[in-house]
């Protein structure tokens, strides 16, 4: 086969693969979920999973397609040509709206630039731009103001900061995984350990991590403690074929604990979704306690460890360990998100 024929063959093969990945399957309206992660943070994977569940439950007439974070620019442009006028781009929720994770923010800006003129909405995020005069904030402001229909933020501090710096419409909505609180079922299972710790080991870990280690060390003299993180047990690559299984596996691991200690936002959410008491420590950028103060202050199954001395923490753990404490039902707090998505349909 000549070189030119090989190039043509390769191009046709890529087009066929793209047609399969971006197939409409006779669906007139589609949600295109962008930046779907393949990395092993199960908090972000849970966001994808619950975004899909939320859209299926509330907008069953729409098809749903996942677009990987690894998608190339030319593939985005190919997709743009395939889109219909009533399709909607979904920018994922999470904690990466800002300069803490600049590569992710740059990808989001690139996607919005490429799809400018299409319907674009952002699911619940935390605001984390640290420098009011940074280039990345200036670029974000310029790009998003012209192109994004609305943003949603998962805590009141993020919402207020966005309102100060951006002109886009914005709404306040819980983290999308908190939609699972409305499906809470009290299930009695055998507990394998007294305490499960779910702690970060990256740049967002709790500022007082040494104190947490000391508390855990002393607690281990009295209670059986196991350690984990929001990562899969046996793989570092996640896709739509294994995502649900890996999330179920992690949920089962968490469910085996009588109490959880965490500085991870989705460690908190996944534990409370199963009625497990949580001792919560704030992470470096404050997004966990910001979310707690916005939605969960009345949740009797959560103690903010930063606000109490060690003896008070132990007393609370002793009183609540092994209890099943139902989470607060968040369903009504998603009404504004549903209403604004419906409005984008008709604009």
Automatic annotation (TrEMBL):
<feature type="domain" description="Polysaccharide pyruvyl transferase">
    <location>
        <begin position="41"/>
        <end position="283"/>
    </location>
</feature>
<dbReference type="InterPro" id="IPR007345">
    <property type="entry name" value="Polysacch_pyruvyl_Trfase"/>
</dbReference>
<dbReference type="Pfam" id="PF04230">
    <property type="entry name" value="PS_pyruv_trans"/>
</dbReference>
<protein>
    <submittedName>
        <fullName>Exopolysaccharide biosynthesis protein</fullName>
    </submittedName>
</protein>
């Amino acid at each position: 086969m000549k070189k030119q024929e090989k190039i043509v063959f390769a191009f046709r093969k890529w087009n066929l693969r793209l047609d399969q990945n971006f197939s409409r399957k006779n669906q007139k309206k589609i949600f295109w979920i962008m930046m779907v992660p393949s990395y092993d943070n199960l908090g972000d994977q849970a966001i994808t999973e619950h975004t899909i569940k939320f859209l299926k439950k509330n907008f069953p007439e729409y098809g749903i397609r996942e677009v990987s974070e690894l998608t190339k620019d030319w593939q985005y442009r190919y997709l743009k040509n395939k889109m219909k006028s009533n399709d909607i781009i979904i920018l994922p929720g999470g904690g990466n709206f800002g300069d803490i994770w600049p590569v992710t923010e740059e990808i989001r800006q690139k996607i919005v630039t490429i799809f400018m003129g299409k319907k674009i909405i952002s699911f619940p995020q935390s605001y984390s731009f640290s420098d009011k005069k940074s280039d990345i904030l200036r670029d974000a402001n310029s790009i998003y103001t012209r192109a994004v229909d609305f943003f949603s933020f998962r805590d009141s501090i993020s919402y207020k900061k966005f309102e100060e710096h951006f002109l886009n419409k914005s709404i306040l909505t819980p983290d999308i995984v908190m939609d699972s609180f409305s499906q809470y079922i009290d299930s009695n299972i055998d507990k394998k350990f007294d305490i499960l710790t779910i702690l970060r080991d990256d740049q967002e870990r709790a500022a007082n991590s040494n104190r947490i280690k000391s508390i855990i060390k002393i607690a281990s003299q009295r209670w059986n403690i196991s350690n984990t993180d929001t990562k899969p047990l046996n793989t570092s690559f996640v896709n739509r074929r294994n995502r649900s299984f890996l999330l179920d596996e992690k949920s089962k691991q968490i469910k085996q604990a009588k109490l959880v200690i965490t500085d991870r936002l989705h460690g908190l959410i996944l534990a409370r979704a199963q009625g497990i008491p949580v001792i919560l420590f704030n992470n470096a950028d404050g997004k966990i306690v910001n979310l707690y103060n916005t939605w969960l202050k009345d949740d009797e199954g959560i103690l903010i460890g930063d606000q109490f001395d060690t003896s008070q923490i132990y007393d609370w753990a002793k009183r609540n360990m092994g209890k099943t404490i139902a989470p607060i039902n968040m369903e009504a707090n998603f009404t504004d998100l549903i209403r604004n998505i419906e409005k984008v349909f008709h604009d």
